[in-house]
Amino acid sequence: MTSFLQERGIPSLDCGSVARAVPELENGAGALVLADEALADDDTQTLLATLNRQPSWSDLPTILLTLPRSGGQAAERRLGLFANVTVIERPVGANPLLTAVRAALRARQRQYELRDQLQRLEQTGEELRAANASKDELLALVSHELRTPLTLVLGAGKLLGRRIDALDIADRNELLGAIIHNGERLQRVIENMLVLAQAETSETITLEPVLLQRVLPRFLAAMEPLQGNHQLKASFADNLPPVLANAAFVEQIVQNLVRNSEKYAAVGLVEVSVSSQDDDVTISVADRGRTLLQEQVDQMLETFYRDPVSSRTVSGLGLGLPVCKRLAEVQHGSLVAHPRDGGGVVVTLTLQAADAESALDDPWGNESPMATQAIAGSPQHAAAGE
């Protein structure tokens, strides 16, 4: 039997007995072909127990070869309780037997395909459950982060509206400052969410040569003065090459990094430094704060992560650094964070330098020919059947 099947391109194994066949069945056989005389009582029970342990998607095809009036009907009845049994009386011609074996293998292949589909559905279900949990968490965080500053804006605005003539200049300025501060807080939350959504869903991102030493000084100057008695210090290395980037995304990253330092760092300098090495240009934002481990800093790059210590006193969605990391990636750059010696964190954005030819087209990075980079997702691979 084995040589007959192998000659016709069907791999097969002669087990000699049902007891020896059972381990092969559990390893993933395509079909079982056996003669009824091989089914002694003990062996039948062993086989039935193995078939009974099949997963829900599995129904191992079994071809039972019997002799007329040999008692094969009893064996068929016993196997039929659990197995997909095809009974063929001997002697049997080569073509009918080959047809039966091939049909059994095709049926088994469909079972494996069903198993793969069930596994994919189960994985999809888990992903949907995780996404739903993340959605609920996001809605709770967003509602809090939007409601709190919005309540303060409305409260200060209503108070100004009712008592503007009775308030002195200092009180009016304090209320106006609260409105502006909380309005900017709302704006940052919404901008981060919109930018992250754009980075995740856009099929193409436009990159062009940008001179950071021309773009960033004006942008950083507009951010001053910082809150909480922080001071902003910026330094730029000489002869910086242009980077291939999206200027709006770079500004969004730098703004998030500076605002993070403004919120979480101890009083002191927030240092922004821009330098180049080989074919890369780096923007580093460093601050001073409590001493952290690298594992703690790595967690800050996870979406919606909130540091258990700082979250007691500082509000936030946990989107700032994840947004920066994603925006760096869509510009073919990277963003890493490390603890500083003596306390605090330094976050470094690395971007690719633009080639000289594209830089000469427009060194300002405003109207040069656009380099459109496609963002392609990783293809999904189905699990291979056995």
Please, what is the average pLDDT?
Answer: 78
Q: How do the helices and strands follow one another from N- to C-terminus? A: HHEHEHEHHEHEEHEEHHEEHE
Could you say which structural class the secondary elements and strand pairing correspond to? alpha/beta
What radius of gyration results from the CA coordinates? 35 Å
Q: Biggest sheet, strands in spatial order?
A: 5-7-8-10-9
- Could you say which overall geometry the principal axes of the C-alpha atoms support? elongated
- Say which CATH homologous superfamily of the domain at 204-374 is assigned: Histidine kinase-like ATPase, C-terminal domain
User: How far is it from the N-terminal to the C-terminal residue, by CA?
Assistant: 23 Å
Any idea what the CATH architecture of the domain at 204-374 is? 2-Layer Sandwich
Uncertain runs with pLDDT below 50, 5 residues or more? 356-386
- Strand-residue proportion: 15-25%
Continuous helix count = 11
The biggest beta sheet reads: 5 strands, mixed
Write down the CATH topology of the domain at 204-374.
Heat Shock Protein 90
What can you tell me about this protein's structure?
With 386 residues, the chain is α/β, with parallel strands linked by helices. Helices cover 50% and strands 17% of the residues. The strands form three sheets. The chain has a five-stranded mixed β-sheet with strand order 5-7-8-10-9. It has a three-stranded parallel β-sheet with strand order 1-2-3, sandwiched between helices. The model is unreliable at 356-386 (pLDDT under 50).
